[in-house]
Design goal:
Largest sheet: 4 strands, antiparallel
Structural class: mainly beta
Order of helices and strands: EEEEEE
Radius of gyration: 13 Å
Strand content: 35-45%
Number of helices: 0
Helix content: under 10%
Length: 98
Amino acid sequence: MFREEIPDGAGMLFVFDESDRHPFWMYRCRTALDIVWLDEEWRVLHVAEEVPPCAERPCPSYEPPAPARYVIEVGPGRARPLGLVPGARVVVEREEGR
């Protein structure tokens, strides 16, 4: 929230304790986002592309058609060029000490 833009190569990873349909909304966001839901095997289940900001409630919610364990948010129009499409597998590498 409150960011004017999402730089290329940046994003946010949400890790949930268990799989569910975890809906997201864009209340108080200042830029559109691509929202990517992944299953427990880190496979892309669903992508909501260029989801627009929402300044006032009520805001629409966006959710996948099946339970997801992880969600990645990236800048608008960035998911597809990064290969974040349904069925793709995401590889997460941890930095030492994290």
